[in-house]
Amino acid sequence: MSNPTTSAADFLPAHRSLSALREAASACRGCALYQDATQTVFGEGRRDARAVFIGEQPGDEEDLAGRPFVGPAGRLLDRAMAEAGIDRKAAYITNAVKHFKWEPRGKRRIHKKPQDREIKACKPWLVNEIELIRPQVVVCLGVTAATAAFGKAVRLKDYRGHFVQTPLSDATFVTTHPSALLRLPDEELRQLEYRRFVEDLRLVQSRLA
Ligand code: SF4
């Protein structure tokens, strides 16, 4: 197995299409995260999507399935999008980091937050996805996606619920990641935060409409 480099840029294909990018990303060694993951989990959705949703990284189920947002957080996102009137099938869904970063806990693989250098290393895939799709709106789900979009570390509370211009899109919207809702220990708080998440997605839907 070859050693990792420092950027996905070393693996970009000469011909840029979503399928060519997906194929090239499957062999990416732009950082060390591929070493412990099952496979690259590239974005999926429509080439003409008006909204691109960016998460953090694939989780355990996504890593095994090779598809983004198919685990518990994905099911919560589906529900919230449907409540907000956004059709997931009409959107494009991807992650800032395309390999699952994890650490063992007993027999389980526990999510580990990607570092800034890994977000940066993986960014060429994201930039090319956005450049090809040219969506009306880019929705950052959580702080890792926002860090990738802004190109610097940001705090969720400074930008949540607003459309702002970033190097990735003139209309970048920041909200929470559905997995953050799942981690809340209290059911009442979880319901409250879920409603807030749906309200954020309604703002996205209004912009698209
Ligand atoms: S996380 Fe991104 S940069 Fe790192 S190996 Fe995977 S696809 Fe390449």
Task: Summarize the topology.
Layout: H1 18-25, E1 44-45, E2 51-55, H2 60-65, H3 72-84, E3 92-95, E4 102-105, E5 108-111, H4 116-133, E6 137-141, H5 143-150, H6 156-159, E7 163-164, E8 172-175, H7 178-182, H8 187-208
Bound molecules: iron/sulfur cluster (SF4).
Summarize this structure as a short list of keywords or feature phrases:
single chain, binds iron/sulfur cluster, Uracil-DNA Glycosylase, subunit E, 209 residues, alpha/beta, two-stranded antiparallel sheet, globular
CATH class: Alpha Beta
**Residue windows where pLDDT falls under 50 for at least 5 positions:** none
Beta-strand percent range: 5-15%
Count of runs of 4 or more consecutive helical residues: 8
Report on this model:
This protein is α/β, with parallel strands linked by helices and 209 residues long. It contains eight helices and eight strands; from the N terminus they run H-E-E-H-H-E-E-E-H-E-H-H-E-E-H-H. The chain has helices at 18-25, 60-65, 72-84, 116-133, 143-150, 156-159, 178-182, 187-208, and strands at 44-45, 51-55, 92-95, 102-105, 108-111, 137-141, 163-164, 172-175. Bound molecules: iron/sulfur cluster. The site of iron/sulfur cluster has 15 residues, from helix 4.
Quickly describe the structure.
It contains 8 helices and 8 strands; from the N terminus they run αββααβββαβααββαα. It is an alpha/beta fold.
